[in-house]
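Fold this: CAS_CSE1 domain-containing protein
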Amino acid sequence: MRGTRSELPLHPIDQMPIIKADCLRYAIAFRGLLSPDTIFNLVNIVPNFLIASSVVVHSYAAVLFEKILFMTIPDQPSLTPLVTKAKISTPDLLIQRCLEALSRPTSCENVYLMRALLRICCCLEERCLPCMNDLVIVLATRLTQIIKNPSKPQFNHFLFECLCLCVRLTCSTDPAFITQFENTLFMIFQEILQQDITEFFPYVFQLLAVMLEQYPLGPNARELFAQKRKVAGLEPLPQYQQLSNQPMLNPAYAALLPRLLVPALWETQGAVMSLARLMQAYLLHNVEAVVSTNKVEAILGVYQRLLNSKTNDVYAFSIITAFLLAFPRANLQPFLKQIFICIFQRLQSAKTEKFMRCLTTFLAQFVLIFGANELVQIVDGVQNRIFSRVLEKVLIPHAELAISSPVAHSNAGDGQQGANGASGTYSSLSSTCFSRLAREDYLTVAAGLSILVTQADALCAPMANGMTTSYHADAFVPFVQSILAGLLAGPARCGAIAADAAALSATVENANSASSPPIFTDERFTDVAGESASFVLIFGRCKLPTLSPGVFDPRIYFAKCLENLAQRFPGTISQELQTGLSNEAKATLEAYCAQGMVRLE
């Protein structure tokens, strides 16, 4: 590598392009064997080659720089970049060189350059804001050009990823900047939709969702999340404290909504995922438009159609969860029974493993929103004591997988290649367990099911007390055992080490939540493939506050929930667990109780 390092800066940029290309390719192939000092030297050297006239040289330079930013410090509980934004000495010059390379006729749709630009902006975060105006103008201009003759799907994908990132980065400093993005992009979106350029529809809908989400959450969702943090003893999130500075919603969103619910549009390739994502944004950030345009029933109709599809049922649950968050409980009352009737009809017709995990996750979220007794009451209201069947056929068999193996996750950590290799406590973990989505689902589903099994009177009140409401009590111990199995499996089924890493990461992240800029953990370390077949924008994912703030280690939380239950029924609960749990489950529970300094008596 010493020869490579000396060869790169030795000659003017455009001399000896073959040697320079070989050196860059060598560094790409063996970057995992390089020392951190060598990597940092390359960070300063490689950007010079982005302005090389040779397409091969500046393409290899883009690939190498992107791969370097993808590298992590080995053996950390969370994904920690080897090259931080502070290590980039001239961020504005770096971005300008990328834009200059993209302006060359031979590289105006260079996938490697656009992908590198995406990773650079993600790494720099707020340090790229001084260049944001130039960056957005270039991206919007290029989008205007490519819609006339789309030819490179991967380039198009990365272009929309960059636009999503620009919106989120800029508006995180001041949400009022969203109006500038709307002024720049709405005309382009209108042209795409009017000319029926269907290959761009999924990207437009996801980017619209991201733009809509720069406005405040609706009043009910905002109050719910604020109350959750208050009960947990946490400070309010800064973005929800000063709403006076928030921009007024652009009426164009409300005007567009009726067209988005035309059934034919949902038949377009890739449209279901992106339209469901946009419906989620409408419900959470512009529910007034849903009500004023009388589209509540139409959205519920979409939910019902998606629920009956084995391919798209996961999107039905994302829409209906947003629906539950968007409206006050009293407004939801007329719809709740029908929501569950649709679920039970699907259960009778087609039970796939994915559907059962999604349903278990949804029930856990329902408990976190409304409470355990409310769930039992509504389900039993559909048919007397049918909640027993839900426990027997859904929750007990599928709680373990729902907790430990989420349906939705990112591939964050695929680039878990640190300098000089890695070996240690966390180095053996799979990439998926580093995913924020996997960790959040592990925590949220476990917290919701913990509340359900310990606070639903019909489930956890001992039969020995003669309580006529405890008609599901025979499922209590099996349900506890299933939850313990999920907690033991850990995030992405990577065991106790992954669970320890997730708990440590959540604790540190909470301590920094009030002061930190946007954290693109999953996004930065996800190897964005740009596959047009899926159309999913990594930077277009929904970001919501957690429904279980204050829960940093679900294993300890579950033990404390059981402790509170045992205090309600002294001697009874601990005896049931002692006689009903398997030896492995008892050992697991004892370990969690010891870890949380909990006594079950």
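DSSP finds 28 helices and no strands in the chain. Residues 213-347 form one domain.
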